[in-house]
User: Which sequence fits this backbone?
């Protein structure tokens, strides 16, 4: 049965969104479906701003960062009026299936839409934060790690040259996936993320102790600390100033910010996006709705929308162990003293 499929990219952009749009279009064409793309996320759905997507229009976009459909936050969609307008536009345009590529906020909105519209709704996990349950990796996560890693490696050169302490803030205000992964990959001396800290101020003493022990073990040398955004009250700049006063060593803050969202997607994200975009079309053919597609242990899967954004996704416990225990310089120093 030929269907008309609509797709949007919503919320924060993630490298690989274009690759996913491409996969959706090519897979839909294979099954004889038509695809339209609404621009600027849910705003485009409310404003009825859309264009037809063909094989020609998605040619060579697999390598591009950002999103050809553009993206945006949409306050209007959270209102009853905005939701009603969106539903009416889907119906008026004879849309059979609606695919949203985005993060937790975008999928919450899709779940809400599904309660008021009879068509099929499918979510695809597109967010650098990797904080959605129901998939091992979200589209854009691996590229964000590589981007953060490249920046941290460059900072290490400067830190070594001046034997300085750098505090590097990465994205992930509610989840520490980027902070943990980039810290381990870069050999950072410390990583601070939401899952490891309940009260940041109570951690100040242990942070200071960690730095002092590093200096005793390594001598005067560079130190890199990776910190998830919004973890410290007042931000990483405030923490840098506090540590400078506490330990008497200059600490420099570095906020990577939106640079982590940009750039061409790495091979992993291009492949993941292609698989999930194709699978989204396949489960539309099967008649499924109200789910997010994902990949767990290299197998495609689908989970209910309210599960993927409400269940907290756990960090890799072994990676946490490596970062926090294996490289615990305070414990190493104490053991050295007892020998």
Assistant:
């Amino acid at each position: 049965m030929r269907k008309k499929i609509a797709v949007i990219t919503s919320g924060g952009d993630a490298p690989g969104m274009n690759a996913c749009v491409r996969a959706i279009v090519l897979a839909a064409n294979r099954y004889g479906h038509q695809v339209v793309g609404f621009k600027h996320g849910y705003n485009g759905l409310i404003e009825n701003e859309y264009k037809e997507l063909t094989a020609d229009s998605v040619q060579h976009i697999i390598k591009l960062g950002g999103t050809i459909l553009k993206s945006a936050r949409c306050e209007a969609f959270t209102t009853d009026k905005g939701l009603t307008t969106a539903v009416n536009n889907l119906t008026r345009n004879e849309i059979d299936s609606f695919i949203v590529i985005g993060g937790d906020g975008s999928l919450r909105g899709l779940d809400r839409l599904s309660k008021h519209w009879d068509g099929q709704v499918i979510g695809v996990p597109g967010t650098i934060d990797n904080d959605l349950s129901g998939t091992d990796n979200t589209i854009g996560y691996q590229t964000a790690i590589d981007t953060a890693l490249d920046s941290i490696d460059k900072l290490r050169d400067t830190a070594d040259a001046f034997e300085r302490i750098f505090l590097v803030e990465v994205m992930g205000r509610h989840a520490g996936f980027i902070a943990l992964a980039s810290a381990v990959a870069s050999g950072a001396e410390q990583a601070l993320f939401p899952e490891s800290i309940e009260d940041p101020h109570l951690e100040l003493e242990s942070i200071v102790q960690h730095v002092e022990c590093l200096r005793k073990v390594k001598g005067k040398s560079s130190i890199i600390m990776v910190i998830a955004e919004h973890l410290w009250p007042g931000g990483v700049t405030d923490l840098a100033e506090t540590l400078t006063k506490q330990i008497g060593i200059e600490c420099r803050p570095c906020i990577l910010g939106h640079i982590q969202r940009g750039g061409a997607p790495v091979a992993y994200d291009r492949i993941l996006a292609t698989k999930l975009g194709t699978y989204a079309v396949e489960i539309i053919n099967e008649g499924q709705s109200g789910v997010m597609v994902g990949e767990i242990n290299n197998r495609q899967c689908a989970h209910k929308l309210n599960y993927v954004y409400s269940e907290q996704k756990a960090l890799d416990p072994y990676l946490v162990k490596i970062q926090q225990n294996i490289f615990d310089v305070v414990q190493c120093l104490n053991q050295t003293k007892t020998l």
User: Anything to note?
Assistant: Residues 141-162 form the longest helix (22 residues). The CA atoms of residues 142 and 268 lie 7 Å apart. The chain is about 45% helix and 15% strand.
